[in-house]
Amino acid sequence: MTLVTNRTLLDVAAGAGFGVGAFNVADLTMAQAVLDAARATESPVIVETLAGSHPHGSDPVFWAALLRLIEGYPEVPVALHLDHGPTFETCVRAIEAGFTSVMIDGSLDSSGHPASFADNVAVTRRVVSYAHERGVSVEGELGTIGGSKDGTARAEIVLADPDEALAFVAATGVDALAVAVGTSHGAYKFSAPPDGPMLRLDLVASIAALVPDTHLVLHGSSSLPAGLRSRVNGSGGAVPSSWGVADEEKVRAIELGVRKINQGMDHYLAYTAGVREALAADPASVDPAGYLAAGRESAQRLLEERMVLFGQAGRALLYR
Ligand SMILES: [Zn+2]
Questions:
Q1: Does residue 249 sit within a domain?
Q2: Beta-strand (E) ranges in the chain?
Q3: Residue 294 C-alpha to ligand 1 middle, in angstroms?
Q4: Residues identified as active-site
Q5: Is residue 246 a part of any domain in this protein?
Q6: Ligand 1 centre and the CA of 73: distance in Å?
Q7: Structure confidence at residue 159 (pLDDT)
Q8: What is the distance in A from the centroid of ligand 1 to the CA of 242?
Q9: For 202-237, how does the pLDDT look when each residue is reduced to its tens digit (9 = 90+)?
Q10: CATH of the domain at 158
Q11: pTM above 0.90, yes or no
Q12: Structural domain tally of the chain?
């Protein structure tokens, strides 16, 4: 059995004190990069995807293919997670499709403004009740993480409050909680190099102490390595300079109690770098087989590094 819930995956990680990378995938080759990296490093892993955010045109088509792909990796403990489920109905669709974990993002209202605590609790509780009856884990979000999930709007940042976190967990029963501790979504996080720590690690520590049975999640914590940006821009891209979260800060956050570390943009950058380099090296190529494979291989290299950094490498055996 290769599919596990986030609750199981992260309970083991908490017991042994390591973090688990959750890597966003937009198509099957990206998912294969995650699973190949996990197999190569003997890591448990979380494959996550946003509803509608893929080129396959249909969530049921893509999601069924993802589950079929995961079946080919019986030695890898995998949770298939819906990232930022916008509504109860979207979470239900993912659960019916076979996801083992869903995130209900009740932190913003339908117009993109911070939702009230009561509204966030209400929708999250509804998803938890439905999901737990079916053996599926749930992640909620408290505070609003800045930046943009889809590149269009930039939400304001409202940091998570430890007392609210305790009340939120008690009222909803979530398995995992995304906490806004200074990170930002997207490929354009911070326009100047940081002059100090980016993460409010004191908040991580306070919240972890208050909700020891709930797994804390870092969103918007890609590092945006300058080397990846140079590779993209050196082969025709034009990604502006931007600074993400330093590797050391993520390691420190794991030590303080963070269990799930979302890495969307770094995976996208590494994949895009491989595709662009392959196209630039052979401008006459029109065969996607070659350049998409180059993207997959480029991504896999970065993902393996992250799995070692977070401490999940070599831990697959803990799930047998
Ligand atoms: Zn997020």
A1: yes
A2: 20-24, 45-50, 78-85, 101-104, 137-142, 146-147, 176-179, 184-185, 215-218, 258-263
A3: 27
A4: 83
A5: yes
A6: 26
A7: 80
A8: 18
A9: 999 999 999 999 999 999 889 999 999 999 999 999
A10: 3.20.20.70
A11: yes
A12: 1
